[in-house]
Request: fold
Amino acid sequence: EPEVTQTPSHQVTQMGQEVILRCVPISNHLYFYWYRQILGQKVEFLVSFYNNEISEKSEIFDDQFSVERPDGSNFTLKIRSTKLEDSAMYFCASSEARQTNYGYTFGSGTRLTVV
Amino acid sequence: AQKVTQAQTEISVVEKEDVTLDCVYETRDTTYYLFWYKQPPSGELVFLIRRNSFDEQNEISGRYSWNFQKSTSSFNFTITASQVVDSAVYFCALSEAAAGNKLTFGGGTRVLVKP
Reply:
C-alpha cells in the first residue's frame, strides 16, 4: 500500500536554528498538508499546498514557517528560527483530490524537539 | 466554524469490556465528513473510518462499530471486547466540503485497556 514517508523521525535542534522537515507524498497525489501535534494535545492544521502554492494556512503558520515542493517528489516544511514552543510532532499528509471523500494519508510523523 | 468535542479525556477498561468513545461536532455546512483516527503509543495516525453527512447508516467492522446521528451531531465509536492492543489515543475529526480537505480534530480520548 502506498505510503507517505517523513524524515527524519526525530530531530533535535537548538532554539533559533532553522530546521527543514521532509516528506515524500504518495506519487499520484496532488494535495499536500502539514499538521502539528504538541505533546499531549490535539492535532492542528498548519497548511495545505496545491499546484506549487499554498491553498490555505492556519493562524499557527506565521512568517517563521514556509513550505516548498523543491522537486517532483519532496514536500518540505521549513521553520526559520525555531522556538521552544515549536517542539511538537509534525505530520505530513497527501490526498488525491481536494474533496475529502477521496481520503487522506498521513505520514508517521517527525518529532521535533527544540532545546 | 467547525468544531469537534471529545468530552472523555481518558477511559480505562479491563480487557474484553466494551468501550464507547463520544464525539460531538459543530458545523454550518450541509456537506461534511467525519473521521476516526487511532494514535498508538508509537505516534502515527491510523485511519479507522470516514463517513459523509449523507450517510447515516451505522456500521460494524469486526470489533469496531460507529453510531452517526445527525440529529444530535454525534459520531460515536465503540470497540467491542477490547484488547490490550486497542490502548491508544482516539481522535474524531471533521472536514467541511467548503473547506476542502482541512481536518479539524477533537482533543482525543486516551483508551487504556488493562489485561
